[in-house]
């Protein structure tokens, strides 16, 4: 059922696209300058098509060989472009891998430094707390000594 709905939707889309194209084409032909330009372009295209057809009829083998040579040349150029793109990708990928590795190492060193700072801070806090307790104890002994002297 869903397949039938998809086919119907595609059919409606195609009909809409054809109607839209026809309406758009008709609307553009309302303009006199557009009609003239289109007429010139069609005459030019007709001449080019006629010339090409004549060349193919007169020299089919040469035309075929020429088209094949152009296709091979285009394929060669595309292959070179693909190789260049691959080389750029490989080089960039290698550079990115190295940069990511460096960032990872720097991050690991920063984390290690943070852990060391935390440990040092904890030791310092422990020392401060011990010193505080010792000072309290010394203060209590001083109070005792004072009370011994005053009694």
UniProtKB/TrEMBL annotation:
Q: Where is the composition biased (Basic and acidic residues)?
A: 115-151
Q: At the top level of its lineage, which domain of life is listed?
A: Bacteria
Question: Is Transmembrane among this UniProt entry's keywords?
Answer: yes
Q: Which UniProt keywords apply?
A: Membrane, Transmembrane, Transmembrane helix
Region labeled Disordered — which residues? 101-151
Q: Where are the transmembrane segments?
A: 12-30
Q: What is this protein called?
A: Gas vesicle protein
Lineage of producing organism:
Bacteria, Bacillati, Bacillota, Bacilli, Bacillales
